[in-house]
Amino acid sequence: MTRDPDHLLPSRSPVQLIDEQGVAVSGDRPDFPSPAALLDAYAALVVGRRFNEQAYALVRQGRLAVYPSSHGQEACQVAAAQVLAPDDWLFPTYRDAVAIVTRGVDPVDTLTLFRGDWHTGYDARAHRVAPQTTPLATQLLHAVGVGHAARLRGEPTVVMALCGDGATSEGDFAEALNFAAVFRAPVVFLVQNNQYAISVPLSKQSAAPSLAHKGVGHGVVSERVDGNDVAALLAVLTGAVARARAGEGPQLIEAHTYRVAAHTNADDPGRYRVAAEVDEWIPRDPLTRTAAYLRGTGVLDDARQAGFDAEAERVAAALRAETTPTTDPGQLFAQVFASPTPQLREQAALVRDELSREVDA
Amino acid sequence: MEKITLAGALNRALRDAMRADESVVVFGEDVGPLGGVFRVTDGLTAEFGESRCFDTPLAESGIVGMAIGMAMNGFRPVVEMQFDAFAFPAFEQIVSHVAKMRNRTLGAVTLPLVIRIPYGGGIGGVEHHCDSSEAYYAHTPGLQVFTPSTAADAYGLLRSALTGTDPVVFLEPKKLYWTKEERDPSVAVPPPGRAVVRRPGTDATLIAYGPAVPVALDAASVAASEGRSLEVVDLRTIVPFDDETVCASVARTGRAVVVAEAPGFASVASEIAARVSERCFSSLSAPVRRVTGFDVPFPPPAYESLYLPGVDRILDAVDDLQWELV
Predict the structure, then answer these.
(1) Chain A closest CA to B73's CA: distance in Å?
(2) Which domain, by its residues, includes B294?
(3) Would you call B129 a catalytic residue per the annotation?
(4) In sequence order, what are the residues at sequence separation of 6 or more whose Cβ sits closer than 8 angstroms to the Cβ of residue B104?
(5) Domain holding B319: CATH number?
(6) Is B69–A138 a contact, with Cβ atoms under 8 angstroms apart?
(7) Among A92-106, B173-187, B207-221, which is the least confidently predicted range?
């Protein structure tokens, strides 16, 4: 039995609610976010931008090993976290630190991976934020498992699973969509299409009509949205989360955005894209258009802006204040297993012995 | 006393674990109404329903990836990879996530899951159905690797795997699935991490695991008829590895041959030989020998008997252990 697939298809063009000048273009939509929701989002955007800038600066100072910035993509980051309920789960990639901070994880703990003193620095279970994942698309399957587990127990949990445009070429992306659809898992897949997988542009990544169309073949309801329009993201993602929570199965959202910064500090974008292309995206910036809309509607004034800026500076100062923590040699062997094997105990003793002789000498 | 096969013991272990712990779920390819291609999951869907034993889409990375998520969220998944070589699409999930989750989160997230993999040759299977892949898993820190050679261990080790909080790659010697043995299901076996002496002997130690254990026992029987007393040690679990039992045996006998089906180069057998050489050097009367599969892709059925370590090849290696110097 085949079913008419039209209900799965994304819109003809990305959903936009506020245009680049900060003007509401679909103000009559019933899902247009409230002024309060947009103000919350804007506050998080200001913090997120400052977080990105500060982390990038810390790399240049040699105080972070690396930082893949989401500069330009902050609207996706903020909306992905803000549409979730406390018991929902977030599955981030390495570029989604701002989403993690927006979810409520301590900013300093969020940067543990990139500071290099451990892999995951926050309590993933307590925050319901999975470890940041670097092997592309692998975490999408974990999201399906978490969602399926919740559904088996009858819990209303929804899982927000993030990935980028490059990850949609991975086999695990297809397997995750397929498994989620077959098991009707309550997962919202948000693809942040920032146009580049390190240096490879989308045109070399996929011949699909859009990345959202990749959901259709798996039977997943799909939509695309202006990824620099936080109002559109909040509206579309809120709807997707609600449908997933209601038992309507997984949802795929493609957000069109742009990676304004380099892939990481180690990258040289000059080798694969021209500056003029970046310049085209600056007027589409998610912060300026949200601020323009909120000022135009009288929701944002100088005093509120100053409050948001102060909070952003507080976060930046906390990141700057974090000195490189000392390492604990015993931690090298910690938590490989619930209890160390005899071989690991021998190796830990070897390191302890080496260190004790260094002290003696 | 009742007789039970190794496959039947695994089936009973799954059934008993699912009765005892409702967080145990079983899924994979054809594990539902069919009961798995080796029937290890026979009857589980009928008894426990589709929510606890279910078929998945045909994608091994998807199966293991979903198991990771379910383990993160309160379940204890047991997934079946249909054959050894069909587990390779899941390799990234196993190595990058299953093995590392506890460590990278410093224990905040543990993955109590079991990945069952029928492995090894000896069944006349065509290519991609007879691989011995234990070295890949044993080489990966964070994975426990169990491989029973008896029905009693099949039951006991699988139940153990379903009580701990660490992930287990559970390698099932498929050529032993239908071997019947008398066992009392209530008899406890040693815990994971303990090797056992399957046959005591005084002249040399054969160290084996999984499908090689019965071959080593056969070799010891033949050797006995020729006047040579061989001890056979069954590792039972490759990780954790029991240096103590292995070294105690070699210290008693002074000679060691490691027997394994997998190709010998960079193998578990090589690791065992190196460990014995390092730790028991003063007890050894001869270099440690390895009798393993050859360093070729697993051969077609007609060549299988040439490839697999057999009694004669083991006894030839034993003959080479410098007896003339005694």
Answers:
(1) 5
(2) 196-323
(3) yes
(4) A118, A119, A120, A131
(5) 3.40.50.920
(6) no
(7) B173-187
Q: Are B95 and B132 members of one domain? A: yes
Give the distance from residue A262's alpha carbon to the nearest chain B alpha carbon, in angstroms.
26
Q: How many domains does chain B have?
A: 2
Q: Does residue B190 lie within any of the structural domains?
A: no
Q: Which residue of A has its CA nearest to B105?
A: A120
Same domain, B19 and B80: yes
- Please, what is the end-to-end C-alpha distance for chain B in angstroms? 46
Classify residue B17: in a domain, yes or no.
yes
How far the first Cα of chain A sits from its last, in Å, is 78
pTM: 0.97
Q: Has residue B188 been placed in a domain? A: no
CB contact under 8 Å between B109 and A124, yes or no, is yes
Runs of H (alpha helix) within chain B: 6-20, 44-48, 60-72, 91-92, 101-104, 134-138, 151-161, 212-225, 243-253, 268-279, 304-307, 311-319
Express each pLDDT in B219-278 by its tens digit.
Answer: 999 999 999 999 999 999 999 999 999 999 999 999 999 999 999 999 999 999 999 999
Same domain, B177 and B201: no
B243 CB within 8 Å of a chain A CB: yes
Indicate which CATH number applies to the domain containing B156. Answer: 3.40.50.970
Tell me whether residue B260 is in a domain.
Answer: yes
Q: Are A169 and A204 in contact (CB under 8 A)?
A: no
Question: A297 — contact with chain B (CB < 8 Å)?
Answer: no
Q: What is the DSSP string of B143-156?
A: -EEE--SSHHHHHH
Q: Which of A149, A182, A334 sits opposite B70 (nearest CB)?
A: A149
Looking at B154, B183, B212, which one is the last position of a domain? Answer: B183
So what's the ipTM on this one? 0.96
| Closest to B243 (Cα-Cα) out of B290, B277, B288 | B277
Q: In DSSP terms, which residues pair with B53 in a beta bridge?
A: B26
Q: Which of residues 173-202 of B touch A (CB under 8 A)?
A: 193
